[in-house]
């Protein structure tokens, strides 16, 4: 355990890490206080002494699960050579996460967006912020690729970025409900096709 953190910070970190898979699998509504106490071995008072309520735990858990995907993705993007390879990292990462079920329960953005909808404004906003940040990152890569002469000039890089995100997240959703990794593989081929159409031959 990181000794540079205060006792309260270590306890919060412990709660987040121990409940991350539960929220991502069961969702906010499906996760009970007893789930939290059982997973952590802590009392209700100890949990709510570190978080105001269950919603605050769920928000912290979303940030934790999202950060795991974000970190892995950007590490691989930084290692990739071409801008085409950098864009393809997004589909390969989500493909790998589905195969390894890491974070447990699948994509936290998709899970949170579907469940929160209009019933939980804070969680919905958290998922929206993640999607918009993802879009900005893709747009940046497209624009840098155009500047480098690797991609063809496009009229609307935001439209392409949202299309890539929709295909990936839609593919993950379809793979989950059909229990078919092949369905995701087929949809990710469309992502690759879209990226290849951007590339200057």
Automatic annotation (TrEMBL):
Residues 9-69 form the HTH tetR-type domain. Keywords: DNA-binding, Transcription, Transcription regulation. InterPro entries: Homeodomain-like_sf, HTH_TetR, Tet_transcr_reg_TetR-rel_C_sf, TetR_C. PROSITE patterns: HTH_TETR_2. Residues 32-51 bind DNA. GO terms for molecular function: DNA binding. The keyword ATP-binding does not apply. This is Transcriptional regulator, TetR family. It comes from Arcticibacter svalbardensis MN12-7. The lineage of its organism: Bacteria, Pseudomonadati, Bacteroidota, Sphingobacteriia, Sphingobacteriales.
């Amino acid at each position: 355990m990181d000794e540079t953190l205060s006792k309260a910070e270590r306890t919060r970190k412990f709660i987040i890490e121990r409940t991350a898979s539960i929220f991502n699998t069961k969702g906010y509504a499906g996760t009970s206080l007893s789930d939290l106490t059982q997973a952590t071995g802590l009392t209700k008072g100890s949990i709510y002494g570190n978080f105001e309520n269950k919603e605050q735990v769920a928000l912290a858990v979303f940030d934790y699960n999202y950060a795991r995907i974000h970190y892995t993705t950007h590490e691989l993007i930084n290692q990739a050579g071409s801008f085409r390879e950098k864009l393809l990292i997004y589909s390969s990462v989500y493909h790998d996460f589905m195969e390894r079920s890491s974070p447990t329960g699948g994509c936290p953005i998709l899970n949170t967006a579907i469940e929160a909808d209009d019933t939980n404004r804070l969680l919905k906003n958290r998922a929206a912020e993640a999607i918009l940040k993802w879009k900005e990152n893709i747009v940046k890569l497209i624009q840098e690729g155009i500047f480098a002469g690797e991609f063809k000039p496009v009229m609307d890089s935001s439209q392409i970025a949202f299309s890539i995100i929709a295909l990936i997240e839609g593919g993950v959703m379809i793979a989950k409900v059909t229990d078919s990794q092949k369905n995701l593989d087929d949809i990710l081929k469309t992502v690759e096709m879209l990226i290849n159409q951007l590339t200057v031959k």
